[in-house]
Amino acid sequence: MKILVINCGSSSLKFQLIDSETEAVICKGLCERIGIDGSRIVYTPEGKDKITIEEPMPDHNRAIEMVIEALTNKENGVVSLDEIGAVGHRIVHGGEKFTKSVVIDEEVIKAIEDVSDLAPLHNPANLIGIRACQKVMPGVPMVAVFDTAFHQTMPQEAYLYGLPYSYYEKYGIRRYGFHGTSHSYVSKRAAEILGKDAKDLNIIVCHLGNGASISAVKGGECIDTSMGLTPLEGLIMGTRTGDIDPSVVEFIMKKENSSVADVTNLLNKKSGVFGLSNDLSSDFRDLEDAYVEGHEGAKRAVDAFTYRVAKYIGSYAVALGSVDAICFTAGVGENSGFTRGLICERLSFLGATVDAEANKVRGEEKVISGPDSKVKLMVVPTNEELAIARDTYALTR
Ligand code: AMP
User: What's this model's pTM, rounded to 2 decimal places?
Assistant: First the structure.
Protein backbone atom coordinates (compact mmCIF):
# COMPACT_ATOMS: atom_id res chain seq x y z
CA MET A 1 0.00 0.00 0.00
CA LYS A 2 1.15 3.56 -0.72
CA ILE A 3 0.90 5.99 2.19
CA LEU A 4 0.81 9.75 1.69
CA VAL A 5 2.39 11.57 4.64
CA ILE A 6 1.34 15.20 5.07
CA ASN A 7 2.93 17.85 7.30
CA CYS A 8 0.75 20.90 6.86
CA GLY A 9 1.79 24.38 8.04
CA SER A 10 -0.07 27.67 7.71
CA SER A 11 1.46 28.52 4.31
CA SER A 12 3.40 25.38 3.44
CA LEU A 13 2.74 21.67 3.02
CA LYS A 14 5.41 18.98 3.01
CA PHE A 15 4.58 15.56 1.65
CA GLN A 16 6.09 12.14 1.09
CA LEU A 17 4.63 9.12 -0.64
CA ILE A 18 5.96 5.98 1.04
CA ASP A 19 5.57 2.33 0.04
CA SER A 20 4.45 0.52 3.19
CA GLU A 21 6.08 -2.74 2.11
CA THR A 22 9.52 -1.59 1.00
CA GLU A 23 9.42 1.64 3.08
CA ALA A 24 10.92 3.41 0.04
CA VAL A 25 10.13 7.08 -0.51
CA ILE A 26 8.42 7.12 -3.92
CA CYS A 27 8.14 10.88 -4.11
CA LYS A 28 8.68 13.80 -1.77
CA GLY A 29 8.09 17.48 -2.02
CA LEU A 30 6.86 20.76 -0.69
CA CYS A 31 4.14 23.31 -1.52
CA GLU A 32 5.33 26.77 -0.58
CA ARG A 33 3.65 30.17 -0.17
CA ILE A 34 0.11 28.75 -0.09
CA GLY A 35 -2.30 31.69 -0.14
CA ILE A 36 0.57 34.08 -0.91
CA ASP A 37 1.90 35.44 -4.22
CA GLY A 38 4.60 33.29 -5.79
CA SER A 39 3.31 29.89 -4.67
CA ARG A 40 4.96 26.78 -6.07
CA ILE A 41 5.28 23.04 -5.68
CA VAL A 42 8.75 21.48 -5.66
CA TYR A 43 9.00 17.69 -5.71
CA THR A 44 11.32 14.85 -6.54
CA PRO A 45 9.93 11.53 -7.82
CA GLU A 46 12.18 8.59 -6.87
CA GLY A 47 15.18 8.37 -9.19
CA LYS A 48 14.25 11.52 -11.11
CA ASP A 49 15.31 15.17 -11.10
CA LYS A 50 13.62 17.80 -8.95
CA ILE A 51 10.53 19.35 -10.57
CA THR A 52 9.29 22.86 -9.79
CA ILE A 53 5.87 24.13 -10.87
CA GLU A 54 5.02 27.75 -10.15
CA GLU A 55 1.25 28.22 -10.05
CA PRO A 56 -1.15 30.14 -7.82
CA MET A 57 -2.28 28.10 -4.80
CA PRO A 58 -4.98 30.23 -3.20
CA ASP A 59 -5.65 27.67 -0.47
CA HIS A 60 -4.70 24.26 0.91
CA ASN A 61 -7.37 22.49 -1.18
CA ARG A 62 -5.54 23.61 -4.30
CA ALA A 63 -2.20 22.62 -2.75
CA ILE A 64 -3.45 19.08 -2.08
CA GLU A 65 -4.89 18.93 -5.61
CA MET A 66 -1.48 19.88 -6.96
CA VAL A 67 0.20 17.22 -4.82
CA ILE A 68 -2.18 14.61 -6.24
CA GLU A 69 -1.60 15.88 -9.78
CA ALA A 70 2.16 15.70 -9.20
CA LEU A 71 1.89 12.12 -7.92
CA THR A 72 -0.51 10.84 -10.59
CA ASN A 73 0.12 12.78 -13.83
CA LYS A 74 0.86 10.71 -16.94
CA GLU A 75 4.24 12.26 -17.76
CA ASN A 76 6.19 11.87 -14.52
CA GLY A 77 3.65 10.66 -11.94
CA VAL A 78 4.50 7.72 -9.71
CA VAL A 79 1.08 6.19 -8.83
CA SER A 80 -2.58 6.12 -9.75
CA LEU A 81 -4.96 7.80 -7.32
CA ASP A 82 -6.54 4.52 -6.20
CA GLU A 83 -3.12 3.19 -5.14
CA ILE A 84 -2.91 5.77 -2.33
CA GLY A 85 -4.34 3.62 0.44
CA ALA A 86 -4.14 6.03 3.37
CA VAL A 87 -2.95 9.45 4.48
CA GLY A 88 -0.93 10.11 7.65
CA HIS A 89 -1.03 13.62 9.09
CA ARG A 90 1.54 15.10 11.44
CA ILE A 91 -0.40 16.90 14.17
CA VAL A 92 1.60 19.11 16.51
CA HIS A 93 -0.49 19.05 19.68
CA GLY A 94 -2.66 16.26 20.98
CA GLY A 95 -2.92 17.58 24.55
CA GLU A 96 -3.57 14.83 27.10
CA LYS A 97 -6.29 13.32 24.95
CA PHE A 98 -4.01 11.55 22.46
CA THR A 99 -1.42 9.13 23.79
CA LYS A 100 -0.97 7.41 20.44
CA SER A 101 -1.82 7.75 16.77
CA VAL A 102 -5.51 7.43 15.83
CA VAL A 103 -7.69 7.00 12.75
CA ILE A 104 -9.25 10.38 11.96
CA ASP A 105 -13.01 10.76 12.26
CA GLU A 106 -15.20 13.77 13.12
CA GLU A 107 -14.72 13.14 16.86
CA VAL A 108 -10.92 13.20 16.47
CA ILE A 109 -11.12 16.40 14.42
CA LYS A 110 -13.22 18.00 17.16
CA ALA A 111 -10.70 16.89 19.81
CA ILE A 112 -7.80 18.36 17.81
CA GLU A 113 -9.79 21.60 17.56
CA ASP A 114 -10.39 21.52 21.32
CA VAL A 115 -6.65 21.57 22.08
CA SER A 116 -5.86 24.17 19.42
CA ASP A 117 -5.37 26.92 21.99
CA LEU A 118 -2.28 24.99 23.13
CA ALA A 119 -0.79 25.26 19.62
CA PRO A 120 -2.59 28.17 17.96
CA LEU A 121 -0.17 28.44 15.04
CA HIS A 122 0.09 24.74 14.28
CA ASN A 123 -3.08 22.76 15.04
CA PRO A 124 -5.42 24.92 12.90
CA ALA A 125 -3.01 24.52 9.97
CA ASN A 126 -2.85 20.75 10.55
CA LEU A 127 -6.67 20.65 10.54
CA ILE A 128 -6.81 22.57 7.27
CA GLY A 129 -4.59 19.84 5.80
CA ILE A 130 -6.98 17.13 7.04
CA ARG A 131 -10.04 18.92 5.62
CA ALA A 132 -8.31 19.52 2.29
CA CYS A 133 -7.42 15.81 1.98
CA GLN A 134 -10.98 14.80 2.87
CA LYS A 135 -12.22 17.01 0.06
CA VAL A 136 -9.73 15.91 -2.58
CA MET A 137 -9.54 12.22 -1.56
CA PRO A 138 -12.95 11.37 -0.10
CA GLY A 139 -13.14 7.92 1.45
CA VAL A 140 -9.36 7.45 1.84
CA PRO A 141 -8.66 6.61 5.51
CA MET A 142 -6.50 9.06 7.41
CA VAL A 143 -4.46 8.85 10.59
CA ALA A 144 -3.34 11.58 12.99
CA VAL A 145 0.17 11.19 14.43
CA PHE A 146 0.85 13.58 17.30
CA ASP A 147 4.15 15.29 18.17
CA THR A 148 3.14 15.18 21.83
CA ALA A 149 1.90 11.57 22.09
CA PHE A 150 5.19 9.81 22.89
CA HIS A 151 5.73 12.10 25.89
CA GLN A 152 2.37 11.30 27.48
CA THR A 153 4.03 8.59 29.60
CA MET A 154 5.91 11.25 31.60
CA PRO A 155 5.11 11.01 35.29
CA GLN A 156 3.35 13.91 36.96
CA GLU A 157 6.50 14.95 38.84
CA ALA A 158 8.16 15.56 35.46
CA TYR A 159 5.32 17.28 33.63
CA LEU A 160 3.93 19.60 36.31
CA TYR A 161 5.15 23.18 36.64
CA GLY A 162 5.49 24.67 40.10
CA LEU A 163 2.29 26.65 39.56
CA PRO A 164 -0.91 26.42 41.61
CA TYR A 165 -2.31 22.98 40.72
CA SER A 166 -5.64 24.55 39.74
CA TYR A 167 -3.95 26.04 36.63
CA TYR A 168 -3.22 22.54 35.47
CA GLU A 169 -6.76 21.43 36.27
CA LYS A 170 -8.46 24.46 34.71
CA TYR A 171 -6.29 25.14 31.69
CA GLY A 172 -4.12 22.08 31.18
CA ILE A 173 -0.95 24.10 31.83
CA ARG A 174 1.81 21.48 32.05
CA ARG A 175 4.78 20.26 30.10
CA TYR A 176 3.73 18.26 27.01
CA GLY A 177 6.93 17.98 24.96
CA PHE A 178 7.29 17.91 21.17
CA HIS A 179 9.29 16.08 18.47
CA GLY A 180 7.74 12.94 20.02
CA THR A 181 7.64 11.01 16.74
CA SER A 182 11.37 11.61 16.36
CA HIS A 183 12.24 10.68 19.97
CA SER A 184 10.16 7.52 19.64
CA TYR A 185 11.66 6.50 16.28
CA VAL A 186 15.27 7.18 17.32
CA SER A 187 15.04 5.41 20.69
CA LYS A 188 13.49 2.31 19.07
CA ARG A 189 16.04 2.34 16.25
CA ALA A 190 18.91 2.69 18.76
CA ALA A 191 17.70 -0.44 20.56
CA GLU A 192 17.59 -2.30 17.21
CA ILE A 193 21.10 -1.15 16.30
CA LEU A 194 22.38 -2.29 19.71
CA GLY A 195 20.57 -5.61 19.24
CA LYS A 196 18.69 -5.17 22.53
CA ASP A 197 15.08 -4.96 23.62
CA ALA A 198 14.08 -1.30 24.19
CA LYS A 199 12.49 -2.49 27.46
CA ASP A 200 16.00 -3.19 28.83
CA LEU A 201 17.54 0.16 27.94
CA ASN A 202 17.83 3.67 29.35
CA ILE A 203 18.34 6.04 26.42
CA ILE A 204 18.77 9.80 26.11
CA VAL A 205 17.77 11.19 22.71
CA CYS A 206 19.17 14.58 21.67
CA HIS A 207 17.11 15.95 18.76
CA LEU A 208 19.32 18.87 17.76
CA GLY A 209 17.96 20.76 14.78
CA ASN A 210 16.81 24.31 14.34
CA GLY A 211 14.27 23.34 16.99
CA ALA A 212 15.98 21.23 19.63
CA SER A 213 14.75 18.96 22.39
CA ILE A 214 16.04 16.11 24.49
CA SER A 215 14.26 13.22 26.14
CA ALA A 216 14.89 10.51 28.69
CA VAL A 217 13.51 7.14 27.56
CA LYS A 218 13.32 4.35 30.12
CA GLY A 219 12.36 0.87 28.93
CA GLY A 220 10.91 2.34 25.73
CA GLU A 221 8.80 4.99 27.50
CA CYS A 222 9.49 8.71 27.77
CA ILE A 223 9.96 9.79 31.39
CA ASP A 224 11.06 13.38 30.76
CA THR A 225 11.60 15.81 27.90
CA SER A 226 12.86 19.35 27.60
CA MET A 227 10.09 21.13 25.67
CA GLY A 228 7.07 22.24 27.67
CA LEU A 229 3.62 23.69 27.18
CA THR A 230 5.06 25.02 23.93
CA PRO A 231 8.27 24.26 22.00
CA LEU A 232 9.96 27.33 23.56
CA GLU A 233 11.18 25.58 26.73
CA GLY A 234 14.36 23.60 27.21
CA LEU A 235 17.51 23.70 25.11
CA ILE A 236 18.89 26.83 23.49
CA MET A 237 17.73 26.53 19.87
CA GLY A 238 18.35 28.18 16.48
CA THR A 239 16.29 31.26 17.34
CA ARG A 240 14.43 30.22 20.54
CA THR A 241 15.66 30.96 24.05
CA GLY A 242 14.88 27.64 25.70
CA ASP A 243 14.70 27.91 29.50
CA ILE A 244 14.72 31.42 30.93
CA ASP A 245 13.45 33.08 34.08
CA PRO A 246 9.82 34.05 33.24
CA SER A 247 10.45 37.45 34.89
CA VAL A 248 12.63 38.35 31.91
CA VAL A 249 9.42 38.95 29.91
CA GLU A 250 8.14 41.74 32.16
CA PHE A 251 11.64 43.14 32.58
CA ILE A 252 12.15 43.54 28.83
CA MET A 253 8.62 44.91 28.37
CA LYS A 254 9.35 47.68 30.86
CA LYS A 255 12.84 48.47 29.54
CA GLU A 256 11.80 48.53 25.88
CA ASN A 257 8.20 49.66 26.32
CA SER A 258 7.15 46.64 24.29
CA SER A 259 4.13 44.33 24.26
CA VAL A 260 3.79 40.67 25.24
CA ALA A 261 3.55 39.86 21.52
CA ASP A 262 6.82 41.72 20.84
CA VAL A 263 8.66 39.87 23.60
CA THR A 264 7.15 36.52 22.58
CA ASN A 265 8.42 37.18 19.08
CA LEU A 266 11.86 38.06 20.49
CA LEU A 267 12.01 34.84 22.53
CA ASN A 268 10.94 32.67 19.57
CA LYS A 269 12.51 34.29 16.55
CA LYS A 270 15.48 36.44 17.56
CA SER A 271 17.06 34.56 20.43
CA GLY A 272 18.86 31.21 20.74
CA VAL A 273 22.24 30.82 19.05
CA PHE A 274 21.15 33.51 16.57
CA GLY A 275 20.68 36.12 19.28
CA LEU A 276 23.65 34.95 21.35
CA SER A 277 25.95 35.26 18.33
CA ASN A 278 24.82 38.87 17.86
CA ASP A 279 22.62 37.89 14.92
CA LEU A 280 25.48 36.18 13.06
CA SER A 281 23.38 33.13 12.12
CA SER A 282 21.01 30.49 13.43
CA ASP A 283 22.65 27.95 11.12
CA PHE A 284 25.23 25.76 12.83
CA ARG A 285 27.32 25.46 9.65
CA ASP A 286 27.91 29.24 9.71
CA LEU A 287 28.44 29.28 13.47
CA GLU A 288 30.94 26.42 13.43
CA ASP A 289 32.96 28.00 10.60
CA ALA A 290 33.05 31.29 12.50
CA TYR A 291 33.89 29.48 15.78
CA VAL A 292 36.94 27.89 14.17
CA GLU A 293 38.02 31.28 12.82
CA GLY A 294 37.85 32.68 16.37
CA HIS A 295 34.58 34.63 16.11
CA GLU A 296 33.70 35.54 19.69
CA GLY A 297 29.90 35.58 19.21
CA ALA A 298 29.87 32.21 17.46
CA LYS A 299 31.94 30.66 20.27
CA ARG A 300 29.68 32.21 22.90
CA ALA A 301 26.55 30.82 21.18
CA VAL A 302 27.84 27.31 20.48
CA ASP A 303 29.37 27.00 23.96
CA ALA A 304 26.08 28.03 25.59
CA PHE A 305 24.24 25.53 23.36
CA THR A 306 26.55 22.59 24.11
CA TYR A 307 26.65 23.45 27.82
CA ARG A 308 22.84 23.40 27.99
CA VAL A 309 22.63 20.05 26.15
CA ALA A 310 25.20 18.50 28.51
CA LYS A 311 23.39 19.94 31.53
CA TYR A 312 20.15 18.28 30.42
CA ILE A 313 21.96 15.01 29.81
CA GLY A 314 23.23 15.24 33.40
CA SER A 315 19.74 15.81 34.77
CA TYR A 316 18.31 12.97 32.67
CA ALA A 317 21.06 10.66 33.91
CA VAL A 318 19.64 11.37 37.37
CA ALA A 319 16.06 10.79 36.16
CA LEU A 320 17.01 7.48 34.50
CA GLY A 321 19.32 6.23 37.26
CA SER A 322 21.79 4.90 34.68
CA VAL A 323 22.38 5.55 30.98
CA ASP A 324 22.99 2.90 28.31
CA ALA A 325 23.01 5.11 25.22
CA ILE A 326 22.95 8.76 24.16
CA CYS A 327 21.66 9.33 20.61
CA PHE A 328 22.21 12.37 18.43
CA THR A 329 19.69 13.17 15.71
CA ALA A 330 18.22 15.96 13.47
CA GLY A 331 20.21 18.46 11.38
CA VAL A 332 22.95 19.30 13.88
CA GLY A 333 22.91 15.98 15.77
CA GLU A 334 23.21 13.90 12.60
CA ASN A 335 25.68 16.05 10.69
CA SER A 336 27.92 17.96 13.03
CA GLY A 337 30.84 16.05 14.50
CA PHE A 338 32.12 19.40 15.76
CA THR A 339 29.11 20.18 17.97
CA ARG A 340 28.66 16.53 19.02
CA GLY A 341 32.33 16.53 20.04
CA LEU A 342 31.90 19.66 22.17
CA ILE A 343 28.88 18.12 23.91
CA CYS A 344 30.59 14.78 24.50
CA GLU A 345 33.66 16.49 26.00
CA ARG A 346 31.38 17.47 28.86
CA LEU A 347 30.17 13.90 29.49
CA SER A 348 33.22 12.41 31.21
CA PHE A 349 31.14 12.16 34.42
CA LEU A 350 29.28 9.31 32.68
CA GLY A 351 32.52 7.63 31.62
CA ALA A 352 31.71 8.51 28.00
CA THR A 353 34.53 8.61 25.47
CA VAL A 354 34.35 9.50 21.77
CA ASP A 355 36.00 7.72 18.84
CA ALA A 356 37.19 10.80 16.92
CA GLU A 357 37.26 8.96 13.58
CA ALA A 358 33.74 7.54 14.01
CA ASN A 359 32.49 10.98 15.09
CA LYS A 360 33.25 12.33 11.60
CA VAL A 361 30.08 10.55 10.40
CA ARG A 362 27.34 12.59 8.72
CA GLY A 363 23.75 11.51 8.30
CA GLU A 364 24.35 7.82 8.93
CA GLU A 365 23.68 5.41 11.77
CA LYS A 366 26.90 4.91 13.71
CA VAL A 367 28.20 4.23 17.20
CA ILE A 368 30.65 7.08 17.84
CA SER A 369 31.80 6.17 21.36
CA GLY A 370 35.23 4.69 22.02
CA PRO A 371 35.65 1.00 22.92
CA ASP A 372 36.28 1.95 26.59
CA SER A 373 33.18 4.18 26.84
CA LYS A 374 30.77 3.31 29.66
CA VAL A 375 27.86 4.62 27.63
CA LYS A 376 27.18 4.14 23.93
CA LEU A 377 27.20 7.40 21.98
CA MET A 378 25.29 7.05 18.72
CA VAL A 379 24.26 8.96 15.63
CA VAL A 380 20.77 7.83 14.60
CA PRO A 381 19.21 9.84 11.76
CA THR A 382 15.58 10.54 12.49
CA ASN A 383 12.80 9.69 10.04
CA GLU A 384 9.54 11.21 11.23
CA GLU A 385 7.81 10.61 7.88
CA LEU A 386 8.58 6.89 7.96
CA ALA A 387 7.34 6.69 11.57
CA ILE A 388 4.10 8.42 10.52
CA ALA A 389 3.75 6.08 7.51
CA ARG A 390 4.27 3.02 9.76
CA ASP A 391 1.60 4.14 12.23
CA THR A 392 -0.77 5.01 9.38
CA TYR A 393 -0.29 1.60 7.77
CA ALA A 394 -0.68 -0.23 11.07
CA LEU A 395 -4.00 1.50 11.78
CA THR A 396 -5.53 1.29 8.29
CA ARG A 397 -4.27 -1.89 6.60
P1 AMP B 1 16.74 20.58 11.17
O2 AMP B 1 15.88 21.59 11.88
O3 AMP B 1 16.71 19.22 11.80
O4 AMP B 1 16.50 20.55 9.69
O5 AMP B 1 18.24 21.09 11.35
C6 AMP B 1 18.69 22.30 10.83
C7 AMP B 1 20.03 22.62 11.45
O8 AMP B 1 20.98 21.59 11.10
C9 AMP B 1 20.62 23.94 10.96
O10 AMP B 1 21.08 24.72 12.06
C11 AMP B 1 21.81 23.49 10.14
O12 AMP B 1 22.83 24.38 10.24
C13 AMP B 1 22.20 22.21 10.82
N14 AMP B 1 23.07 21.42 9.96
C15 AMP B 1 22.75 20.77 8.83
N16 AMP B 1 23.87 20.19 8.29
C17 AMP B 1 24.90 20.51 9.10
C18 AMP B 1 26.31 20.22 9.09
N19 AMP B 1 26.87 19.51 8.12
N20 AMP B 1 27.05 20.73 10.09
C21 AMP B 1 26.50 21.46 11.06
N22 AMP B 1 25.20 21.75 11.13
C23 AMP B 1 24.40 21.29 10.17
Answer: 0.96
